[in-house]
Amino acid sequence: MIEMKDIRKSFGSNHVLRGLNLSIPKGTSMVIIGGSGTGKSIALKCILGLVHQDSGTITVDGKDASKGDRDAFLARFGMLFQGGALFDSLPVWQNVAFRLLRGSLKRPHEEARAIAIEKLRRVGLKEDVADRLPAELSGGMQKRVGLARAIAAEPEIIFFDEPTTGLDPIMSGVINELIREIVVEMGATAMTITHDMTSVRAIADNIAMLHEGVIQWTGPVSEMDQSGNPYLEQFIQGKAEGPIEAVR
Amino acid sequence: MKPFALLGRAVLAALAMIGRIALFAVDAVSHMLRPPFYGREFLSALMNIGWLSLPVVGLTAVFTGGALALQIYAGGSRFNAEAVVPQIVAVGVVRELGPVMVGLMIAARVTSSIAAEIGTMKVTEQIDALVTLSTHPMKYLTVPRVLAGLIVVPGLVAVGDIIGVFGGYAVATGTLGFNPAAYIRNTVDFLEPLDVISSLTKGAFFGFAATLMGCYHGMHSGRGAMGVGRATKTAVEGAAVLILAANFVLTGVFFTL
Ligand SMILES: Nc1ncnc2c1ncn2[C@@H]1O[C@H](COP(=O)(O)OP(=O)(O)OP(=O)(O)O)[C@@H](O)[C@H]1O
Ligand SMILES: [Mg+2]
C-alpha cells in the first residue's frame, strides 16, 4: 500500500504538484494519466526519494518513505525511467543484471547473466543483444532493456514511466501483457504512467488522472468511461475543446 | 552601490561553492572508509587516469625539461653560470614543474572527462537509476575515481620528473656540450630526499583535487547539453586554480617552514 498525502512540489514559480493525494493498494496496478508536463514523473520520483517534495507525506505500508533504512526501502522497488537511463558504459546484460552483480542480491556471474537473458527474452529481445552496448540499440530496444532491468530482481513494487512510448503496436501489446502478468502472477504493485489509452485498458486496475497538480479523478478502470468528469472525458476522447487547455 | 553589491554577491557565491566542495570532499573520504568498495570501477579508473595519461605526461615533461635547460643555459651564460644547468633543471623539474605540469595535464585530460561523463549520467537520469538500484553514486562513481587519482598521480609525477630531467639531459648533452656522466652525477648529488617527497606529495594533492572537482561538478551538472558543457568548463577551471593554489601553499610548507 502506497499513500501520498497532500504532496506539493514547485520548481521556482512553476507549481507542479499542488496537493496530490493518491493511494495504491498492494498487489494492484495503478495507471496515472495526464497531459505532458503535469508532473507525473515527478510524482514517482517523490516516492523513491529522488526528488524531495516541499510538503506532504508518503507512506509505504504505513511507514514514512523518507525515514528508515534507505537500502532496504529501495531494494523493494524497480523503476523504468522515461528515458531508459541505461548505463552506457556497461553492456546490455550487465545493465539488466546490475542489481544481481553487486550488493545484497549478488549472484554468481553465470547465474546473473542467465537471469538477464531470460528477462530480455520476456521483453522481446534476443540473446544476441546481451553483449551489445546500449548506444548500439534503437530507442524502443533501449526502453525494453530498461524494462528488463526494472523487473530483473523481481521487486514487490514496480514503476513504469511510459513503458510503451516509442514501441510498435505489437511490441506494445507484448509489454502490456508482461506488466499485467507481473501484477497478477507475481503479486507486484505496479504504477504506470502512459499516454496510450490502449495500454491503460490493458494494464490498469485503477486509474488516476493528474491535472493542474492534483488528482482530478481516480477509480477503477471499469468506471473510467462513465466518470462524468470533464477532464477525464476530454483526455480519453482526445478532444482539443474542454477544460484542459491545449497550450500549457 | 551597485558594483559593491555585485562584488559582494560574487564573493558570497564563491565562498558557498568552496563550502559545498569541502563538504563533498569530506563525504567522499567518509565513503572511502566504509564498504562496499567497487573494485572493478577502481581498476578502470586507475587505467584511465594513470596508464592512459602516460603519453601526454611524458611529452609535456620532455619538452618542458628541454626548454628549461636551454633557458638556464642562456640566462646563466650572462654571468658565467652555465655550469649550473643540471642542478637547476633537477630542482626546477622535481620541485615545481614536474608536479604542476602533470597536475594541469590531469586537470585537462581527467577532470574534463570525469565531469562530462558524470554530468551526462546525471542529465540522462543514470544517477537516479543508480540510486533506485541500491547503489550509492558517491561510492560507485566518486570514490573509485578520487582514490585512483590520489594513488596514481604521484606515480605520474615521478614519471614526469624523470622524463623532465631526461629532457634537460638530452638537450644539455646533445646541443650544449655537457658531459653525460657528469650531468647525471651532478643531478643525483644535488637532489635531496625532501625534493622528491615534496614532488610526490604535491602529486597526491593534485590527483585528489583534479578528480574531486570532476566528480563534484559532474554530479551537480545543470540540465541538458549546455549544463554538461558548463559543468565541464567549471570543473577544469576549478581544478586548475586549486592545483596552482595548493602548489603555492605546499611549496611554502615544504621549503620555507
Ligand atoms: N529538475 C527540474 N527542474 C526544474 N523543473 C523541472 C525539473 N524536473 C521537472 N521539472 C518541471 O516539472 C514539470 C513536470 O515534469 P514531469 O517530468 O513530471 O512531467 P510529466 O508529467 O512526466 O510529463 P511527460 O508526460 O511529458 O513526461 C515540468 O513542467 C518540468 O518543466
Ligand atoms: Mg514524464
TrEMBL record, chain A:
Pfam families: ABC_tran. One of its GO terms (molecular function) is ATP binding. Residues 2-237 form the ABC transporter domain. Keywords: ATP-binding, Nucleotide-binding, Transport. It comes from the Bacteria. InterPro entries: AAA+_ATPase, ABC_transporter-like_ATP-bd, ABC_transporter-like_CS, P-loop_NTPase. PANTHER family: INTERMEMBRANE PHOSPHOLIPID TRANSPORT SYSTEM ATP-BINDING PROTEIN MLAF, PROTEIN TRIGALACTOSYLDIACYLGLYCEROL 3, CHLOROPLASTIC. This is ATP-binding cassette domain-containing protein.
Automatic annotation (TrEMBL), chain B:
The keyword Cell division does not apply. InterPro entries: Permease_MalE. Pfam families: MlaE (PF02405). Keywords: Membrane, Transmembrane, Transmembrane helix. It comes from the Bacteria. The chain crosses the membrane at residues 49-70, 146-171, 196-216, 236-255. PANTHER family: ABC TRANSPORTER PERMEASE PROTEIN-RELATED (PTHR30188), PROTEIN TRIGALACTOSYLDIACYLGLYCEROL 1, CHLOROPLASTIC (PTHR30188:SF4). This is ABC transporter permease.
